[in-house]
Amino acid sequence: MADQATGLNVIGKPYPKKDARIKVTGECKFAADLVVPGMLHGKMLRSPHAHARILGIDTSRAERLPGVKAVITGKDFPGITYGNFIHTRDYLPLALDRVRYIGEEVAAVAAIDEDMAYEGLDLIEVEYEPLRAVFGPEEAMKEGAPLLYDDKPNNISSKSEWAFGDVEKGFEASYLIKEETFETQAIKHGMLETHTCIGYWDATDRITLEACKQSPYTAWRQLAMGLGVPPSKIRMKQTFVGAGNSGGKQEALPMDFAAVMLSKKTGRPVKISHTMEEVLLMGHMRHPYKIRLKLGVDKEGLIQALDCFAIADGGAHSSIGQLSIYLISAFMMMAYKIPNARYRGYRVYTNKSFCGALRGHCAPQINFALEGLMDEIAQELGMDPLDIRKRNAMTPGYEAPNGFKITTCGLREALDKAREMSGWDEKRGKLPKYRGIGVASTGFISGSNIMGMSACSAMLKVLEDGTVALQSGATDVGQGCDTVLPMIVAEVLGIEPDDVSFALIDSDLTPMDGGTWSSRVTFYAGNAAKMAALDAKRQLGRVAAEVFDVKEEDLIFKHRQVSVKNDPEQSMDFARLVRYCQNRKGMTIMGRGYYNAPVGNLDFSKGTGNFSAAYSYYAQVCEVEVDPETGLVDICNMWMAHDGGRELNPMLVRGQLIGSTVMHVGQALFEQLIRDEKGNTFNTSFRDYKMPTFKDIPGSQELFSLEIPDPEGPFGAKEAGEGASAPVLASIANAVSDAVGTRFRRLPIIPEEVLKAIKGKSR
Amino acid sequence: MADQATGLNVIGKPYPKKDARIKVTGECKFAADLVVPGMLHGKMLRSPHAHARILGIDTSRAERLPGVKAVITGKDFPGITYGNFIHTRDYLPLALDRVRYIGEEVAAVAAIDEDMAYEGLDLIEVEYEPLRAVFGPEEAMKEGAPLLYDDKPNNISSKSEWAFGDVEKGFEASYLIKEETFETQAIKHGMLETHTCIGYWDATDRITLEACKQSPYTAWRQLAMGLGVPPSKIRMKQTFVGAGNSGGKQEALPMDFAAVMLSKKTGRPVKISHTMEEVLLMGHMRHPYKIRLKLGVDKEGLIQALDCFAIADGGAHSSIGQLSIYLISAFMMMAYKIPNARYRGYRVYTNKSFCGALRGHCAPQINFALEGLMDEIAQELGMDPLDIRKRNAMTPGYEAPNGFKITTCGLREALDKAREMSGWDEKRGKLPKYRGIGVASTGFISGSNIMGMSACSAMLKVLEDGTVALQSGATDVGQGCDTVLPMIVAEVLGIEPDDVSFALIDSDLTPMDGGTWSSRVTFYAGNAAKMAALDAKRQLGRVAAEVFDVKEEDLIFKHRQVSVKNDPEQSMDFARLVRYCQNRKGMTIMGRGYYNAPVGNLDFSKGTGNFSAAYSYYAQVCEVEVDPETGLVDICNMWMAHDGGRELNPMLVRGQLIGSTVMHVGQALFEQLIRDEKGNTFNTSFRDYKMPTFKDIPGSQELFSLEIPDPEGPFGAKEAGEGASAPVLASIANAVSDAVGTRFRRLPIIPEEVLKAIKGKSR
After folding, report:
1. What residues in B contact A514, CB-CB < 8 Å?
2. Which entry of A82, A287, B240, B253 is 20 to 30 Å from A701 by CA?
3. Same domain, yes or no, for A469 and A343?
């Protein structure tokens, strides 16, 4: 039945995720499960040096090993670098003359099984000339440091430098100025599904790559770039993607190039599956940041000026780093009204595994810094941390000096609601010893147009049983677009979500799409799906209007029926109308639609422009208890109020909010990659790399959605999920600080640091 | 470069078939090559009785056999019959209480490999009560004959009875009347690829069938019908289809039902692949016909009246028979102006493997009869056989009494051309002894709207490298739509056929389609693809017009360029325009189109209506030499002139014309299924079932296309290929008759018959 208030039948209801059942029963086939006739198995040879020149590779012994069918090196490729942005194309399919981190791919073997492939790897002889390596970004920026790329002085991979307003004047006008440095660590997505691909290069030079990709069209484009072929020569077939990839399966990887090239050499399909050790060794990691933040406020706590200097440790490749270094500054400007601001951000190459996108993509890091400093300022001013945030919070219609145009905005309401839910006023400053409460708030984006090709598109066909086969360019990586996009189509056509199928991407078939990043899928692909559904509805409506002899606008599509407004007698099954169109009118009903947000392309080296067509807001309160004996932090409760527009499927939004929170408990308290001084990573298994598990989940999580429909989002939706990752580090850190009375400006807040703080106090 | 006369760049050129290379290299994966993780192998238990009641089936021993994972019988299905037309749904997924021919499926086993599945079959115990069987259609029609279906009196499976004009009056007005009976035999398509499918039924009750199907949507619908589920629950994935299927892979088969049901029972994918023995045992066969034809002509040889009485031996199921029995009469009316005609056609059930569609679908049979009788009449009138045909030939604009509306028609020109090419006038009556020459002509259809859903549709997306990913609902079964449809798209958009990809059908993705039958693909799917391309061109044109500041109609899309008419300076790469749309305008270019011929639905029980939107015409001359010692017929030369509209790809049309001819050499001279009196088929291997091979190919084949563009066909095309099958039986039979001086009215014309005729003469 339709919701009384909204008139919506499908939207807003908690439909379970479409693939939930086949995933929990184990029936769902992931890339690693796939078997192709005649398939060989490939493995990658990786550099044992953090930085070295390749003097020569002798593959002859490996090639002679029975069972080994082909061996390739970087020389088998045309030598074209690939990447995301014009100035940061520094990936090679396989290393050519140099390796830049331990784990970089230098050769690959295809053999009859994995064991033989490993044996083949052992027989490849690479002559290296070790080079001086550099691991710290600040050290890497210094004159005289070894350069990773000759054309990148000071190892700066990308930078973003901008200023709006008059920062100096702002500081002059400030009553209180604080400046602190915050540091965050490298972490890994911790996806349970390792990267897997099957490559096939046929006699007509058509190349097929079947792989678990988050943004198949991004990988498609990169694969074409590195192979030196037009993208249409490549058929990218997406498999189900294991949840938790969270930005880690965006790009074409050396394994993808190796699989197709080994296939070209052997004439057989080649499958390559990474081990978890390879995943944790290789990349993409979350960027570690060192952020120096200077914040000036007036007596009321209103922000006068903000200056940020950030250095990101990018590792050996650029990946999406040109965006990452801008993002710190973008998220810095997304929650509060900041009249004067300056940013200088540098992403630096180091001889470590490379960093890229990870759930929240730089928002958690800057939020950790800014929200920490906000707390310190509030403390110094004697203000309530919630109050200072509310005072500075963005409001609907606000236009930020950097160009952000705020439309709907419920940040103040979110802060109020978080206060109420958490019992903030009863708890703040009144909790027992070693118990603390902290708050953090954030703004987030509902997608962006940062890439050249950013529109999302959808095609659909309406079937004779009244169902719809939807093809979206969007990829479900666990976030739920396999369910939400069908819901949108169902709402438009007056049918049920079960009536709409959702297909995996196949670049030969499914429509173009910008990709699954920047929390854009519901907003962009949702609008595209809606338009495709409206397109089909128009075609059906024309026929129905003819049948009923009424105007199209007098038709109602609802409950799998098409009927005439104010004349309930005139009605027919939706399915019957489709069959009427097919069988009597000789029509087939197909809809198409695409959507690109009306925000223009962003110049993120200058930091100017409206990043997103809609911004979402979060306020999170966290309550912790610290064990003074062990230093262990127990997260008792988390409360989150958010403005994500209308929640299209509250069950899935809830899952995303909880997931984003739990994932970041790890970064806040214990998760990190541990390396030695030579660049070796120590913890390359999930036994040693500590991710949050059941026992680390907050004692309770209470969520509240403000449900403010956004005019641009499909059925009023905005981003809802990824943004929830942003305040977690800060709300936990602020709560721990409240509990032990010491600021923590470096992550993770491991028990040793907590104990140190407690002992420092008690001493 | 564009053709001077037509202005066309792509159309009319001999592009090789897109899949030719991967097929000849063996890289192309057919259904039998596919492997799916966890897959089981299924086998079918078949009835040893031509007609029997099933008293019971004991599967318990089979089920207990280790390695056997499931056994199913007809009781595992909901008991719903399925089929093509409302009144002829007589298929069951597996037999329930009765079997009606030797080879009918009664149970199926899924096991870990094929051997285990066969062992499982051996352990199934079926208790049969044999029933009286009937094998001859005339016997089956008699009162007291055993009925195959209780609701089908006289075993009549379907009938078509109609009359136009006044037949009696026509005969009264005739100068010469001849009445003869012609008989044709059962043959099998002789596809080299046997039927194969992989079925999968998942926990969400989504059913996937991957199979080699000629009309995937027909099989999709039938599978849904027999399983009692909505079609959208089924995902039909088409594999490459081995050439030569020629109508034999249209429908859902018991193996398809068995595969999905065995999967439901086991939770694992199940693959079933027929042996060639099963293919030759089971069906669909070509309908054997007994045709009594009475033809009256005036002194000039002009047809006054035609009366046809036909009995088709349909075997144990209806298949597409309701259409088949009409088709005889339709093709009878398709070449000549026949003012008065009557038809009574009966398709009869017998306890043999069932008959269905096969290249030419009833046209060769009626053509054999009518063209034979025409020759006899000509002989009696002392007229040249080519002359009598030309006199009666249809002409452009002719409207037949049964409703056929002739638009373009080059039959007279084809007859003239065949006369010229073959040197007819120098040969007819002037050849040495035992050498003969014969002619036959025919009309054919360019698709029809006989099924409920008959439109073809296409979707396409234009990619950033200036290529197009085309999705058509059409299936390539060797006829070449994988190449011709991309050619059509390329012509519209001014790009090259290599720039357009063509995808296999996947019912979750590719657009709806009526199916691959009635020679409709180029005409219907071609028009749909053209419309989709025009749709995309409009979108691109709007942007280009804006860029160049001109009107859309002033743009030229040619040679991968978009330029302004009369202003060669203003021009940009097609690919650049696409990227401009994508990256600057945020568009994605998608086109859609569907086409249904403007001919209405045909009522083929009454025989009224315009069957096709365009008719194609063929005239074929055959020259043979008969060995008087052995009776062997050597086909020396074949000449064919045809009006198939504009040939879109002459190389592929040539392949089709030659293929249709060679295939029917078999039916004319030696091919047949041989059965004993109990209904056992003797020749169920290609060693025993004689198909034409290289040594049977005519000594030469000369082809000529009249190239009369049709206004309704895409770029002027009409049917070109299947129709060539129609005159072959008759042109050969007429040539053999000419060589030995005796009429042959029964096929095949085996050496024994030829020798008998020669000896009868010389006696």
Report:
1. none
2. A287
3. no
